[in-house]
Specification:
mainly beta, 11-stranded mixed beta sheet
Length: 178
């Protein structure tokens, strides 16, 4: 079976990490120590997640493949206990090359996405996901994105989320710890 490679428009990637800290521990940190933790976690332990831009989603390749998206979204993370804060932080680089290998005999594919807000990504305006599958002719395909980010850092954001679900960017460090 011949495989064809397609560039995917409308999908980019982030490196994301989340953790829970006791609010006393968090408020006792210096800005420099918090920055060091964030930088180290992004470097060593972050997960690749994808951003969806539905308006620009398409496959670009030698042969035309029709594509559609089925997107659902929720916060997949457990609730935050009182007196704890979740940090969600990510970085995005200036460019991303996202592509996929599709068997030549397939001419229509649906991308099924189980989106994850991580408690704040929808606040930021992102449709974010790590869990997805491709469906063709009613069957799930064993294919996945090939992705590589490159260039200068485009964005680096830190969100703090309390047990009430209040979330704010660290740039707006006014979060209520109630």
């Amino acid at each position: 079976m011949t495989i064809k490679n397609y560039r995917i428009n409308g999908i980019s990637e982030l490196m994301l990490f989340h953790c829970i800290l006791n609010k006393t521990e968090l408020t006792g940190m210096t800005p420099d120590s918090l920055k060091q933790i964030i930088d180290q976690k992004l470097l060593d332990e972050s997960d690749q997640v994808f951003l969806l831009d539905k308006d620009n989603f398409s496959f670009i390749g030698e042969k035309q493949v029709a594509s559609s998206i089925q997107y659902t979204e929720r916060d997949h993370l457990p609730e935050i206990e009182k007196d704890y804060i979740r940090l969600v932080f990510w970085e995005e680089f200036g460019g991303a090359n996202v592509n996929i290998d599709i068997p030549e005999n397939i001419d229509e594919v649906s991308l099924v996405i189980d989106g994850n807000t991580f408690g704040c990504m929808d606040d930021w305006g992102f449709e974010t996901f790590a869990d997805y599958s491709f469906i063709a002719a009613g069957k799930e395909l064993d294919i996945y994105f090939n992705s590589e980010s490159y260039g200068e850092q485009k964005d680096k954001v830190v969100y703090l989320i309390n047990s009430s679900g209040n979330c704010e960017s660290i740039r707006e460090f006014r979060i209520q710890f109630s």
